[in-house]
């Protein structure tokens, strides 16, 4: 997992007053594991777009960290 | 300096209320990003007077397809504190004459582009952790019927509903959204009315006079400042007291 992506997650968690995570796995679920709601996911999308230039939710719902990583890898 | 670094996106800045709005924000040290199709004398004057604080770009808001790219080029990496949706067209006719093409054009300019711009503005505010403010220019025609304005009023009614729901959805991020419901102002938009029609409209107000652009601009400005921090999801009437 790229540390840049981990940091983006932690910025979102921090902004919501939640504790940070030290690692994420492919199976980490955005809503049930990290407790992110739709507004948090909007912020996550915006931060990922700003860093990587891709809107991860543009083509439908994303549920896990792995699905985000796949989208970012597809860019390379 | 007070307000230094504060930024606002204003649409429809080439004439009418738009000029007044730009001047109000610029005089209070804000940086203004302005959009309109035409570069009028007033735009050139503002560019000269405020050089680095007035950034203007031409765009036709009927073009809903290239809006994202345009927004990114205009705003670049800057954080927005406010968005004033002021550009609009009025397609007036009685309902039995309505034509689909001009109706669609009006909806693109008055509703679809403002909704898409709100998307980009909210995303900008999220990225920069800004507790921003959005103001849509609505019209008294939504609340008091006028012959010939049904289609136009319907676009403003859509904005009022959109604004109320924006306020509800993004309130927990302290982003606010309000509508400024303007009465009839003396601008190009109302210039096709005959003096007789105008008089009848003004007789339906408490003050019996047109709504002052400067009064509308001052309220819009106030809604964008920290002093209005508890005001959201509202329709604020600046309309000479329409009765
Ligand atoms: N005047 C009234 O009596 C009255 C009453 C209630 C509410 N309002 C509302 O107040 C706001 C300002 O109205 P106003 O009286 O100042 O109108 P106006 O004098 O007609 O100015 C309209 C502005 O919108 C811009 N605009 C129009 N079509 C556009 C397009 N396709 N793309 C980009 N910009 C476009 C125009 O610029 P370009 O032509 O250069 O593109 C202009 O700067 C509007 O939302 C209006 O509905 C007006």
TrEMBL record, chain A:
Which domain of life, per UniProt?
Bacteria
InterPro entries attached to this UniProt entry: ACP-like_sf, PP-bd_ACP, Ppantetheine_attach_site
Q: Which Pfam families match?
A: PP-binding
Q: Which UniProt keywords apply?
A: Phosphopantetheine, Phosphoprotein
* Domain annotation Carrier: ranges: 1-76
Name of the protein:
Acyl carrier protein
User: Can you name the source organism?
Assistant: Schleiferia thermophila
UniProtKB/TrEMBL annotation, chain B:
Q: Which Pfam families match?
A: adh_short_C2 (PF13561)
> Which first-to-last residue range defines the signal peptide?
none
Q: Which GO terms describe its molecular function?
A: oxidoreductase activity, acting on the CH-OH group of donors, NAD or NADP as acceptor
GO biological-process terms attached to the record: fatty acid elongation
- InterPro entries (alphabetical): NAD(P)-bd_dom_sf, Sc_DH/Rdtase_CS, SDR_fam
Q: Which domain of life is it from?
A: Bacteria
Q: Its family?
A: Belongs to the short-chain dehydrogenases/reductases (SDR) family.
Name of the featured protein: 3-oxoacyl-[acyl-carrier protein] reductase
Q: Which organism is it from?
A: Schleiferia thermophila
Q: Highest lineage ranks of the organism? A: Bacteria, Pseudomonadati, Bacteroidota, Flavobacteriia, Flavobacteriales
